[in-house]
Structure formats: C-alpha cells, structure tokens
Amino acid sequence: AVFFYIAQRYESIKRFYLFDINPDLVNCYNAIRGNVELLIDELEIIEKKFLKKDRSARKEFYYRVRKEFNSDRAPAKLIFLNKTCYNGLYRVNRKDEFNVPFGDYKNPKICDAENLLTVSVLLQKAEIICADFEKSDKYIDDKTFVYFDPPYRPLSPTASFTSYSKDNFDEAKQIRLARFCRHIHGKGAKFLLSNSDPKNEDPKDSFFDEHYNGFIIDMVKATRAINCKAACRGQINELLIFNY
C-alpha cells in the first residue's frame, strides 16, 4: 500500500525496489506487471464459474482451487483465494501449503480489471525481488527511503500470526530487522517501520523501546479486521518507528 501511495503521488521517483520473502506474492505481482491482460482473462473465467454456483458448490469449488494452487501456485488462483477465503487472509503451513478456510461471501468481486490495470502501470516502475530484507542492502544509500512492513510481533502467545511464509518471522528475526534498521541508518538512509504495540497486552513489554532506542517511536490507532472473535476487531494501538 505504501508503494502504491508513493508511486501515484510522487512521479519524480523513477525507480522502486520491492522486496518480499513470499514467492507467491512476488510471482503474482510479476504476473500483474508482465501480462495483466492474460491474468484478467483467467480471473474472469474463474469468477463466472464461481458466482453461478450455490453456496455448497462454491465451497467445493474453493477447496478444489485451493488444492490446485498448492500444486501450481498460479497467480490467478491466488487472487481468487484472497477474494474468497476467510477474511482475505494469507497463511501457509510448514509444508508451504495455503490452508485458509472458505470465506462464504455473498458476491465477492474476484476480477477487478480496472484496479489490476492501474496496478500494472505502477509496477512498471518497480523491480520485484523475492528475498530476505537484508538482501536490499546493496540498493540502499543516503538518498534512499525504506519502508518495512514485517509480520507483526505477536501481542500474546495465543495471538501469534507469523506464518506469512513457511519459515516463521520469529523473535530472532525481529531483532535482526532492528539491527538492519540501525545499519541503514548508519548509511544515511531514511526508514519507516510499522509493527504491533506490545503494550496493548503487557504495559511492561519494552521490546521495541530497547531494540529501537534512539529512533522515534510513535503510537497510532489502527483498525484490526482479522480476529477469530468479532468483539476483538476494531481499533488497536500500533507503532511507527522512524529516523527522520
């Protein structure tokens, strides 16, 4: 979202480098950038097949596509799953299998052709790289702005969601990211990082205060749409950490 916001509003920026550890997401964005017309055609076919079915048949169709996706990792199927799974969640198990259940929406918009065409144009400015965040180091200098959006540090053991890829983004990786932020700060780059605020659950949890000591840590209100309990959805404190 940050890339699309900046790319649309600051036309003087000619080049972006987008890093993500999730190969499915990178593959999908490359498909949107490289052959969006074919992707739209595939999504329109899937959408027509899905929407004409009743609830029971839709559910069966969803799980069939999910099984196929775990074999072929097709971008059109990933978008379909994102639009029809529970809460639009992306989650994989240790076998790297997408395992989010059916979402049971009445009339989901599976093929948003206008949006895909807009995204494709913006992605022409970007190089999309599937790699760990530390691999971005060679692209960073004192004229670089870097935004980090890692899997958020869990607020509690039972609230853990780090399965954005088959290798969880655990506490050690959170610490490694903090060290990398300090490293690029030393190179003169500007960075912004978003993460959870552990003090929502434990006011004594000083993880970010300790590891980002010397940087600006702002608390902001954000809306959480994903929670197994509807009553727990809504506004919650999150953190923005930056050096400028």
Automatic annotation (TrEMBL):
InterPro entries: Ade_MeTrfase_dom_2, DNA_methylase_N6_adenine_CS, M_m6A_EcoRV, MeTrfase_D12, SAM-dependent_MTases_sf. It is an enzyme of class 2 (transferase). GO terms for molecular function: S-adenosyl-L-methionine binding; sequence-specific DNA binding; site-specific DNA-methyltransferase (adenine-specific) activity. This is site-specific DNA-methyltransferase (adenine-specific). The keyword Methyltransferase applies. Gene3D superfamilies: Adenine-specific Methyltransferase, Domain 2, Vaccinia Virus protein VP39. Keywords: Methyltransferase, S-adenosyl-L-methionine, Transferase. NCBIfam families: dam. GO terms for biological process: DNA restriction-modification system; methylation; mismatch repair. The keyword Methyltransferase applies. The lineage of its organism: unclassified sequences, metagenomes, ecological metagenomes. It catalyses: a 2'-deoxyadenosine in DNA + S-adenosyl-L-methionine = an N(6)-methyl-2'-deoxyadenosine in DNA + S-adenosyl-L-homocysteine + H(+). Belongs to the N(4)/N(6)-methyltransferase family. PANTHER family: DNA ADENINE METHYLASE.
